[in-house]
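Recap quiz, item 2
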Amino acid sequence: MRFGVVVFPGSNCERDCFHLVDQVLGRPVRYVWHQDTALERVDCVILPGGFSYGDYLRPGAIARFSPVMGAVAEHAGAGGLVLGICNGFQILLEAGLLPGAMLRNRSLQFQCQDVFLRVEDVETAFTRLCRPGQVLKVPIKHGDGNYHVDPEDLAARGRVVFRYSEADGRVTPEANPNGSMANIAGLANLEGNVVGLMPHPEVSAEEVLGGTDGRVLLESAVRYWEERGPC
Amino acid sequence: MLEDRPWEAVGLTEEEYRRCRELLGREPNHLELGLVGLMWSEHCSYKTSKVHLAKLPNEGPGVLQGPGENAGVIDLGDGLALAFKIESHNHPSAIEPLQGAATGVGGILRDIITMGAHPIAILDSLRFGLLEAPRNRYLFAGVVAGIGWYGNCFGCPTVGGEVYCEPVYDGNPLVNAMCLGLVRTAGIIRGRAEGPGNPVLLAGAPTGRDGIHGASLLASREFDEKAEERRPSVQVGDPFLGKLLLEACLEARDTGLLVGVNDLGAAGLTSACSETASRAGTGIELELDEVPRREPGMTPYEVMLSESQERMLIIARQGGEEVIARIFRRWGLEAKIIGRVTADGMIRVREGGRMVAEVPAAALTREAPVYHRPERAAERPVLDLGALPDLAPSQAGAWLARLMGSANLASREWVYRQYDHLVGVNTALRPGSDAAVLRFKDRPGGVAAAVDGNGRHCWLAPRLGGALAVAEAARNLTVSGARPVALTNCLNFGNPERPEIMWEFREVIEGMAEACRALGTPVTGGNVSFYNETLGQNIYPTPVVGMVGLLDDIAHVTRQGFQSAGDRIILLGRTRDDLGGGEYLKLAHGLVAGPPPGLDLEAEVRVQALCLEAIRAGMVRSAHDCSDGGLAVALAEMAVAGGEGARGLDVDLAAAGGSRLDTLLFGETPSRIVLAVAPAAAEGLLALARRHGVAAVELGVVTDGRVVLRQGGRTLVDEATADLEAAWKGALPCLMAG
Amino acid sequence: MRWRARVWVTLRAGVLDPQGAATRSALVSLGFTGVQTVRAGKFLELELVAASREEADRQVADMCRRLLANPVTEDFRYELEGCQEG
């Protein structure tokens, strides 16, 4: 299974995602330039975190018109895997590949901290190795992660994959770091091959960084791909 | 034709003007005088500090680059090196905190990039007036937002720092930013305009009118009511462009076509050209018409002096310019030839085919005036400890909570939560412990970094204060598991034209030099910020030490939080009756009086050596420097930071030393470290301490839930850890909410 | 013809506006106790070339829908005026 990490101008977690796939998972990976119009030899494409185009206008609003996003949409439509992390998630929302939009954090501040995520859906490509209700400790680092969606639109186009929770899995207002509607931290499309989340699994994939809970997302993707076989 | 007293407009003295005329052999024209005025400003020339900075040791076995370049570099072995540097952005931050702090971070990042290095971490040392004043809260919030905005967007983690609030920083906050970067030893680039005939490129953002005269007007003059009016000269940052510049520079570096690189910071093109030429013994000829502009109608003077951000000066190998320009274009940036290196040592500026300035590079740099300014020792208040009533035992618990919730000792979470401290996936020890540690991806070890400075100590006893700052920075690295290696310093002082400020400056430097020699940590560069004076009020002399240390094995990372109940708590070092210059003295008695605690450098070296040996031998579970707030605060912090089931302690302090209760609990005697070790390791550790000649006493055990401090039979403190934590964590958010 | 468009982008009614709320409480604490609501938004000014007012109007509306505002959370409105050549 081959991974691709998209580089937009202003991405800043592309090296971290590359490191995760290459060094931690030991899988083939290459960078994909934002002006590329095709995703050759890529089975799973990662849209990394950062501040594409400086987050100017709105996070993800400009990046989503990059040539590569046409290829990402095609890839997703053909059942290919897509993971959007933080800014990558914001780009997926702006591109309409997932429903909803992001607002400034309720605190109006950038927030960098560990959070707990309850896995709400173990049927997606990126969570199939999780137990239902499993709690993952993964850090967030964002200023615009306050998720907003029209509930009908969400029901029609998406599935909730992660909610901010307490360490024991209870979903409480106190566990919500940014004001997200219904504590939503991550989503999938109905098919479950496109997932976006605000927390950063690449930062919690090695003991030396304080935890390995984030690894399960990509390990799930690898398992999914192996079971399904190349398309 | 020049006006009557032409030197005044550019901030020179009549004497300096005469020197300029001599060096040129003629009258300077308007532009030339501007260039000289800027480069001879205190900020650019170090004309007052030079003679004293030379006293700092700057050589050592691992030093690949000492002072005089964009950053210092130390060898990490196996072809890898670490570039690091600290710089101030005090005056711009006082006027526009968000942009001032952001561009300070941008500037220090570019200093690291110019060395060919990839930035891996930022640390910040901040000072403000008391947070009860809305203006200081505005400055604090703005500075933190600015640091976060730039660093977060750029994608370099902000992993550590310090914040202190004192009335002397009212209106004159300090914003010092430190950056570390990794570079292949073979790929180190220097800011040198080598090779006559080589093209000189200006890369990055176009040039506008921002920051004209920032260096001379802002950083080299004291503050007054008119400071607000100078707002237009503050530069505006663009971290997005800064990130693109980084990527383009790294890619260009790997082509091997870069001969020299210099940041365009204070004094813009003028400084970058004259510094790079002067270091290489060459000259530069500039065609100003080629400089990409953001606005029309700019004069040569404005183009040469502009401090527009996100720009780099690149000296390329002849013939390589097109390759470099192509790389920059790919990142959406321009890199344009604006001149050539020449052999004759002259900075020549041409516009519209006309020569508009012609000055020797050396006249702008090496031959700038040097001053031995007069100094006068000042008397500072001295504490009469005997006349001070001791702390009543019944009040000990309340004072511990009060100190933990005070502005200077409280948790900094409110600050570092706003910084991305994780990007880069190297952060092995996050903010909130004694130092930050970053792992190396290609080898087992890592690098630790800490920034430290205590202005109050330095005001009360400058020489001692300087030494204490170095010792504490080293101790913070040591307790985190690292061997201190080298440091960069940011020297924030008042108006050097006042003799007592010069006395403070020389004393601090000499104190730092002594400590650097004792600890074996050379100074590889830094920055001086004078004129931190507002309406006649000078700041405390505030040297900030940014020290780096190395870990051979990342498994040696040691945290301050307790790990497991039952661990034995051991105090290394002796507690004396030291209350001078401390937080408790100020809070409980409203006194700022000295002298600060004395420092025995030999004892300091011994205690650190012991601690490091014990950590490397795997004997240590938790370690914490005992400094601000004293032993009681250090112990409580270890409980608050403790892991599940290990958030408490029960200790008896009878054997710790100190003949008074206040000094025992809250005295700030240096050279002390608190350790927690597994029960089986306690005996071995005490034996090791004896071999090192370090006083060590077992105080008690790690428990859960309560902080209990006893003395002999009596209980001094018995507080719920959760209550102390609430005071400690709640203080800053509460203060900032107004 | 050159046209100048002034575009206001604001959060849709019903969408929580933390920036507006914080600004309101700051204004109240400065003594502007009469302030009932604050809604924060963005203002953009752009100049464009288009053959006619209708054409300019069509373009600006399209820009707003596709990029300048996010329809999930934001509303927009704009004003259009002709500007002098040169």
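The mean pLDDT of chain B is 94.
DSSP finds 25 helices and 28 strands in chain B.
End of item.
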